[in-house]
Amino acid sequence: MSTARVLTIALDDQFARAVPELAVPWHAEPAPEPTLLVLNEPLATGLGLEVDQLRGPDGLGLLTGTLVPPDARPVAQAYAGHQFGGFSPRLGDGRALLLGELRDRDGRVRDLHLKGSGRTPFARGGDGLAAVGPMLREYVVSEAMHALGIPTTRALAVVATGRGVRRETVLPGAVLARVASSHLRVGSFQFVAAQGDVELTRRLADLAIERHYPEAATADAPYLALYDAVVAAQARLVAQWMLVGFVHGVLNTDNVTISGETIDYGPCAFMEAFDPATVYSSIDESGRYAYGNQPGITQWNLARLAEALLPLLGDDQDGAVEAATASLSAFGHHYNAAWLSGIRAKLGLPADLDDEVAAPLVEDLVALMRAGRVDLTTFYRALGRAARGDAEPVRGLVLDLADLDAWLERWRALGPDADAMDRVNPVYLPRNHLVEEALAAATGGDLGPVERLLEAVRSPYDERPGLEAYAAPAPDDFGAGYQTFCGT
User: Could you give the CA distance from residue 113 to residue 110 in angstroms, rounded to a whole number?
Assistant: First the structure.
């Protein structure tokens, strides 16, 4: 690792200073022939970084971790996690590095983090590398989530390394540069709790409060306030996933952030035919992380956070358990409120409509969609046309026309706002078949399909001529047996 000669960027080591027990100083492996594949110029500008410098040799060195500012202290972060229900006390950044923290133009602290930068002490037998396809998947899907207004980590760049990565075949290697409000996760607290170090747990919690929930510091019970805030943030996040049909695919506790941002876009996908049992991840053989299970699994993961925080919630364990249980029970309220608010917006319902009227209307619609296995994104967008008087597009998506027509009559009697619906129901998502086509092309050296897909999903609500293919469901021969993979 070398130090940067030209780049004017200051990287702090706040995480490493606050909890050095969770930070292993490390450096990236060399990138033989670094080539910039994509650069998120608006994000770079917002971070106060010079786009032209990032495109140059020193910039590529920063984005691969091989050339860092003199005061930078890259570290691999330690964390634990429940993976598919089984606890692993020592996971950590096996192929990733936290280069450090920087302040964006709004003064907010942001992590600059790499993925695919080489083996670390946490690699557990892995090669520490990443291939072009999975890194571009994270870039595309995280940008789509950001455009949809869903809290997410964001990709700053993907750089091809010039090194082959052996998976089923040898694939071109790449490093992803990722930005997050932090990489603190439920698994971070589990790692510390497993060591029984209450003082370290306190320092980690203080860091989480400082980074994400400063108002908790002045609460009567700061650590309970921290937990309350995380529960609420995660409930709102998962509700937003459900509203657009996002399936995370690997919702382990090490992939649940304290900030409430979406993280880790490995085997993720967007549901098309509406079915709560939808699973895309090749490693989720039991369906633990199916679309419909995501709220319950998130609440289960948050229970594990409560267990890790118990020593901070009170001297009396019974009282601490009671307080944590009461806080966790609020998850359902937060989730239901966020989901119902979102679905009301998707249906264009009047703001003053009583929930007693809205709730059964929504329940009946969900039953209709499930019975007909309708394409979620197409269906909601077509409802906007139905609100304007043209019901044929939505009628063409449902088999039980009698039930649909009866439901449409009830709904239209409420005066749905079609323009408001179009502002929250996307036309374009990174549909699975388009993502796979774009990644296959990029792996072969053609970035055009990735660039065109990004153009569509970065403005998801604005219907544009020439992009019809990006709004269409997958071909009939695509969906059956479709699987996504972690990329390791």
Answer: 9
User: Could you give the number of structural domains in the chain?
Assistant: 2
What is the secondary structure of 386-419 as a DSSP string? HHTT--HHHHTT-S-HHHHHHHHHHHHTT---HH
Contact 176, 130 (CB under 8 A): yes
The answer to whether 294 and 238 have CB atoms below 8 angstroms apart is yes
Range of the domain at 145: 2-180
Structure tokens at 130: 């990443």
Domain endpoint, select from 397, 416, 435: 416
Instruction: Let me know if residue 149 belongs to a domain.
Output: yes
Q: For residue 259, is it within any domain? A: no
At 483 the pLDDT is 82
What's the predicted TM-score (pTM) here? Answer: 0.96
DSSP three-state, residue 486: coil
- Flag whether 246 is in a domain: no
**C-alpha distance across the termini of the chain, in Å:** 24
**CA 445 remoteness from chain centre:** 27
Integer-rounded Cα radius of gyration of the chain: 23
Kind plus residue range of the DSSP H or E element containing 43: helix 41-46
- How confident is the model at residue 386, as a pLDDT? 97
Choosing from 13, 93, 111, 254, the catalytic residue is: 254
Rounded CA gap, 319 and 310, in Å? Answer: 10
Q: Where are the alpha helices (DSSP H) in 310-400?
A: 317-346, 355-372, 376-387, 392-395
Give me the residues of the chain with pLDDT under 50, please: none
Q: Examine residue 454 and state whether it is found in any structural domain, yes or no.
A: no
Q: Which of 261, 215, 188, 154 is nearest to 18 (CA)?
A: 188
Helix-, strand-, coil-residue percentages of the chain, each rounded to 5 = 45, 15, 40
Task: Give per-residue pLDDT as tens, 137-149.
Answer: 999 999 999 999 9
Contacts of 300 by beta carbon, 8 Å cutoff, 6+ apart: none
Please state the φ and ψ torsions of residue 155, each to the nearest 5 degrees.
Answer: -90, 130
Predicted pLDDT of residue 5? 53
Mark whether 254 is an active-site residue: yes
Q: Which tokens belong to 197?
A: 């170090």
